[in-house]
Amino acid sequence: MLELPEEMGLIAIAVRQTQGKGRGGNVWLSPVGCALSTLHITIPLHSNLGQRIPFIQHLVSLAVVESVRSIPGYEEIDLRVKWPNDIYYSDLMKLGGVLVNSTLIETTFHVLIGFGFNVNNSNPTICINDLITKFNKEQGTKLKALSADCLIARTVMVLERLIDIFQEKGPNGVLPSYYKYWVHGGKQVRLHNEEGPIAWIVGIDDYGFLQVHEEGKGVESVHPDGNSFDMLRNLIVPKH
């Protein structure tokens, strides 16, 4: 990838993975039916995104969701983003994830973006075509099933647009769309443990870190690499 011209992109697509990786050394299950891809992009250090590299995972998560929900007729398919790097059905079930690795060489970030999301495989959780089938039954519509190839292509196309917007306008150019699709708006959580202080999620800051408002303490930012958000217990906890 280091020998390619800077203006040229590189993408690897797999039908199946046998050693998929998740955050923190987790294994990512990758049966046939997943959209599986690693994308190489370059970001100048001295640019809006180059100064806020953690934001890339949010842009990719948003691109996956918009790859479906920007198709006419599919706007109400309940696909959402979960901070910092997951794709969810409503706030109920994970069906995709993003893993970003970046290397700074001179004044250019070389970024490898791995993303995988369930398109046509109902196991191990649920998939996008399950959501479309469910929507058709409930709404009496006849939306067609989508293919992994189509959604990978759409995700990359949307991501290019989001990066261009971010480079021009910074975080405020993309955050309204991100908040439109995220699962956390106004949610109450406890910090550190089940008996910890109550806080409310208020958004993400200019660097992509989660912002929480704790009573009497104001707004604080939570770093994604040091914390995990437990959807089931509503905790923001330090990782060990």
Structure write-up:
This protein is of the alpha+beta class. It folds into two domains: 10-181, BirA Bifunctional Protein, domain 2, CATH 3.30.930; 187-238. 32% of the residues are buried. β4 and β5 (93-105) form a beta hairpin. The longest helix has 22 residues, at 148-169. The mean pLDDT is 87. It has helices spanning 55-69, 128-139, 148-169, 175-181; strands at residues 10-14, 34-44, 79-82, 86-89, 93-105, 108-118, 188-191, 198-204, 210-214, 218-222, 227-230, 235-238. Helices cover 23% and strands 32% of the residues. The strands form two sheets. The protein has a six-stranded antiparallel beta sheet with strand order 1-2-6-5-4-3. A six-stranded mixed beta sheet has the order 10-9-8-7-12-11, with no helix packed on it. It holds the Pfam family BPL_LplA_LipB. Keywords: Ligase. Residues 1-167 form the BPL/LPL catalytic domain. InterPro entries: aa-tRNA-synth_II/BPL/LPL, Biotin_CoA_COase_ligase, BPL_C, BPL_LPL_catalytic. This is BPL/LPL catalytic domain-containing protein.
